[in-house]
Amino acid sequence: MTRRTVRLAHVLSSTAxxxxxxxxxxxxxxxxxxxAGAPGVSASPAARQQTESPTGSPTGSPSGxxxxxxTESGAETALITAADxxxxxxxxxxxxxxxxxxxxxxxxxxxxxxxxxxxxxADCQRLMDSLFDDDLLGKPSGANAxxxxxxxxxRLLYQVAAYDRTDVQDSLNWMAKLPQECDRFTxxxxxxxxxxxxxxxxxxxxxxAREGLRVTVRGPVDGTDATLTLDVxxxxxxxxxxxxxxxxxxxxxDDSVRSAVQLGTQRLQDILAGRSPxxxxxxxx
Length: 285
Prior knowledge:
With 285 residues, the chain is α+β, with helices and mostly antiparallel strands. The chain contains five helices and 14 strands. The chain has helices spanning 72-78, 94-97, 117-133, 165-181, 254-272; strands at 8-10, 22-24, 52-53, 90-91, 101-102, 108-109, 144-151, 154-162, 184-189, 192-200, 203-204, 209-221, 224-237, 240-248. The strands form three sheets. The protein has a nine-stranded antiparallel sheet, with helices on both faces. A hairpin with a 2-residue loop joins strand 9 and strand 10. It is globular.
């Protein structure tokens, strides 16, 4: 794998441990779209009551997917706020969030770790590359927006985008295979070996299809062993999807990801149905 060019190192903590952990690349360009959405109608509180289920099921939401077209302004409005997620997160500038990239995710997957070497290793390489590039579901085909939050040494990136439905469902199906195909493997970067583990995580039963993963990467940073833990979730709503990636050297942001998924999916459904999203909840204040 060809190493990407990076311009600026971001520090996950004040110690030398993380000096090389977070790298930055150029910000992603956003595409335009037509305006849509009628203000003034709040989402029903009952619509937020969802039960939990294992990930991977392509079951639809109880009322079906809204059919509205996601616009740039709609995608921005569908983004969550700090009040929508557990714990004490602080929103950052969009330009800062666009440049978040974890250096521990860079590396060439060791093909010898796999029985079905070429196929499985390629899927695991795609996972690591897409986590670094923040394009887990591929390139959006329409409107897209993102927002970033920090809490201590952890970061949370939340994205809303329009995709081709076939493409985004194919990406979710691919994600569903990863806990088995990429259970444990190694990758190498500049002669340094990193160990990766991928496990399934459960998500609230929201949207039309959903997948959740936990990715743990262990390896040296500036000569000291470090562990990066990322909780990852993707939810499809019609031709659109939300993606959440949260974690850092502190690890375990599962609760915050679940909150983001639960409330973020409802916000997106409200926008697509022409409703104004309900005000952010106060239970996390």
